[in-house]
Amino acid sequence: MTEAERAELMALATDFPRLWRDPRTQMKEKKRMLRLLIEDVTLTKGDALHVDIRFVGDATRSLDLPLPKSCMELRTTDAEVVKEIDQLIDTYTDREIADVLNERGVRTVVTTPWTAARIGRLRTIYGLTRPAYAPARRGTSGPARCGCPLRRRALDRTPLAPPRSASGTSH
Q1: In this structure, what DSSP letter does residue 60 have?
Q2: Which residues lie across from 98 on neighbouring strands?
């Protein structure tokens, strides 16, 4: 290390915290600061992340850090929310469940409001099914049973027309 580099390093050491926190210090300058202080870093992945840092001048520091969560773990819906959805399925439609969760301030893992489509995907992913007697499937309104102010228009109960063949006649 030259005498000029040593003087620069000593000046940096006294000003480092102030410079690092200064919002005007650009990322490329922060990288340059680190290059002046750190010789190398070794990462070892096991049950935790082991970090060995060797500074200029041969001082060392070791850290054991928890492994970061995987993308799947970061995007997995909380078990309590899934349990709540499973309980609401007996009484509400997907749209109504989304409305109930949104009214309670519950957000998705990506912090967006719930939609009927998201509820439907969660039901598929977690195998949540409606019982045969569930009002949401039969087309009758169920929110009033739980004291919820939500209303749902009853589905049209007109029987379906008989299927037609390709020639246009009924079977």
Answers
A1: E
A2: none
Sign of CA dihedral 132, 134, 135, 136: negative
The pTM for the full model equals 0.45
- 76-132 pLDDT, tens digit per residue, is 888 899 999 999 998 899 999 999 999 999 988 888 899 999 999 999 988 988 776
Residues 6+ apart with CB under 8 A from 77: 108, 109, 122
Domain ranges across the chain = 3-65, 72-146
Structure tokens at 120: 């439907």
Distance (Å, whole) CA 10 – CA 4: 10
| Six-digit token string for 137 | 């499937």
Per-residue pLDDT tens over the stretch 22-78: 999 999 999 998 888 899 999 999 999 999 999 988 899 999 999 988 887 788 888
b/e map 145-164, b = 16+ CB within 10 Å: eeebebebeeeeeeeeeeee
